[in-house]
Amino acid sequence: MNVSHTEDRDELLVMVASLYYELNQSQQQIADRLETSRSRVSRLGAEARERRIVTIHIRKSTPRDFTLEQELISRFALKDAYVLQSTPCVEGGALLESLGRLAASYLRRVIPALPGGSSIGVAWGSSVQAAVRALPDQFRTDINVVQLVGGVGALVVDSPELARMVAAKLGGRHFDLHAPALVARPDVRATFLTEPAVREGVARARAVQLAVTGIGTVQEEASSFLRAGLLSRAELTELRSLNVVGEMCGRFFDIAGCHGDFEINRRIIGIEVEDLQHIPRVLAIAHGMPRVQSILGALRGEFLTVLVTDDVTARAVLSLAEL
C-alpha cells in the first residue's frame, strides 16, 4: 500500500473526527468544508471509530451492562431492565446497596412523570429497602404510598415501615394494610377481608400506578419468609416438593410462572398476582444464584415490567431460560 496514501487517509479521518467531536460541527458542515457528501462524512466517522482513531469512553456513575439489559428486554418483553456490572470486590451489602442505587435511578426517572395524586405500592424486604434508602429526600410532594402486602412484624424491613419511609421522601400520605402477610388458614384470611379497613387497603394496592417489590425464593439460604419466621424449613421443603421456586408480594409460583394451585396463596393477605399484571409499572429488584429460578418464574409469569439485577444473575437467568 502506498505510504503517502495511508498518511493522507489518516489525516482525513483525524480531521473529520476533530471537527465532529471537538468542534461539535454537524456532518453537513464537515461535508461542505470537504466538498463531499454527508453520507461520505458519516462513513469516514465510522471508519475512524473502527480504526480506533476515535475511541469513546462513557463515564458511568453506576456501571451497567446495556447489552444484557437489551437481552432481558427482548427475551421477556420487559419495558426496561437495569443490570449492574458487578466486580469481585463488590458483594454482600455493597452489592445490594449498588442495586438499590440502580433501582432508585429508575424511580427518579419515572416518578416525576406520574400524575399528581398518584400512588405507588411497596412490598417488603432488603432489596426494596435498599432502593428506598437511595431515593433523595423531598423528591416529590404529592405521591401517596400504600402497602402491597400485609405486615410481617419480625423484620426491620417490614412493609409498613418502608411505606412510611417512601411517603416521607415523596411528601404524600402513606396507607397501611392492617393485616398480617400470612395467616394460618384460608378461612382466617376470608375473615380479615370482611373488615372494611383491610378491603380498602387491598383495593388501594390494586390501584397503584407503580409497584416496587423484590422476588423471593424457597431456597433456605435466601428465603425472606424463613428469616421472618413466617415459614419453617419443613414448610419450605414441602413447597419445593410441589415445584414452587419463588414468590413475589407473597404469591408463590413455579418456574413457568403458574401460581393458581398452591394452597399457601390462599393464606396471603395483599395484592393478587392478577393485580400485579395490571399495574402499569412493576419494578422488581432481585439478585443471586438462589433466586435465579424464581426470577425466571416471575418473568415467565409476566409479574413485572422492569427488572433490576446484576450481570452474573442476568446471565444465569438467560441461560436457564434456554434449557
The CATH topology name of the largest domain reads Rossmann fold
Name given to the CATH architecture of the largest domain: 3-Layer(aba) Sandwich
Number of helices: 14
CATH class of the largest domain: Alpha Beta
The order of strands across the largest sheet is 1-10-9-5-2-3-4
Write a structural description.
The chain has about 325 residues and is of the alpha/beta class. It has two domains: about 5-50, Arc Repressor Mutant, subunit A (Orthogonal Bundle), CATH 1.10.10; about 65-320, Rossmann fold (3-Layer(aba) Sandwich). The protein is about 45% helix and about 15% strand. It contains 14 helices and ten strands. The protein has helices at about 5-20, 25-35, 40-50, 65-75, 90-110, 125-135, 160-170, 185-190, 195-205, 225, 235-240, 275, 290-300, 310-320, and strands at about 80-85, 120, 145, 170-175, 210-215, 215, 245-250, 250-255, 280-285, 305-310. Strands 1-10-9-5-2-3-4 form a seven-stranded parallel beta sheet, sandwiched between helices. A three-stranded antiparallel beta sheet has the order 6-7-8. The longest helix has 20 residues, at about 5-20.
